[in-house]
Amino acid sequence: MIKMIVSDVDGTLLSHGYINPKCIESIKKAQKKGIEFVVASGRDYYGVTSILDPFDIKCSMILGNGAQYCNKNGEVLMNCYLDKEKLKEILPIFIEHQTPYMIFTTNGFYSTLKPEVVRDRFAYRGKVRFGNKMEDFLPGGPMSDSPACQIQQFDSIDEFIKRDLEIIKVEAFSHDADEIQRVLPYFKDMKNIAYLSSYPDNVEITNEYAQKGLILEKVIDQLKIKKEEVIVLGDGMNDITLFERFPYSFAPSNGEKAIQEKAYQVVCSCEDGAVSEAIEYALENL
């Protein structure tokens, strides 16, 4: 019998700001049966709760691709933060290649770039990839509370790493996937980091052990849950460790090819209710 459902957000549960109502219904159905629903995302805590709160879904969360595990109240129960000294190696690569980036921390979002530059580049990427409107990211717009719109600028990396905060991840992005692909080789031999992409036009850098599948193994060990009692869902390469470590993995039909190839089962697209289809299958067959 399934005791836990673990789902990615973007591209798996959420499609261009839309969650199929069937998914909400199936999640709540599973929760009423005593099955724990867990989100596993590259997002931060507010980035997840802002999506789920309107549907009155409360759940535990794996955040920053595995840098944090929080309970439903937002309390961090496990963490695996990036060594701040690594910023001395990581940031110059993005700065030299003029690749926009933002640092997710336990106390806000930062970049050496001007806040409006990060916001506008992120907004343009959203326009190209998701069909968002540029004005959505301006003050008062529906996307104005996203991390890219809350950037605090700093000048000195040496000064920044002395601050009282922890690094969840560094995310670089572009409307042009080739721009991201050009910087990836620089991270291939960098020690003590993991770098994965939610989409081809971004890269997210974390502690090498801050990966969804790794932290989930620790979570279920504490909860005395077997891997065979868990289903996992994801669509991107930042979900790969979930698929490598858990036998019952489900990929939406819009997912990356490599993810679909590793999946226990490929279900319908995110937009058509992939999470619902996987949950209903699990309730009936696992």
UniProtKB/TrEMBL annotation:
CC terms in the record's Gene Ontology section: cytosol
Signal peptide as annotated in the record: none
Ranges in coiled-coil conformation: none
InterPro entries xrefs: Cof, HAD-like_sf, HAD-SF_hydro_IIB, HAD_sf
Pfam families the record matches: Hydrolase_3
Any one GO MF annotation of this record: magnesium ion binding
Alphabetical list of SUPFAM superfamilies matching this protein: HAD-like
Keyword annotations: Hydrolase
PANTHER family given in the database record: 5-AMINO-6-(5-PHOSPHO-D-RIBITYLAMINO)URACIL PHOSPHATASE YCSE, PHOSPHOSERINE PHOSPHATASE
Name of the protein in question: Cof-type HAD-IIB family hydrolase
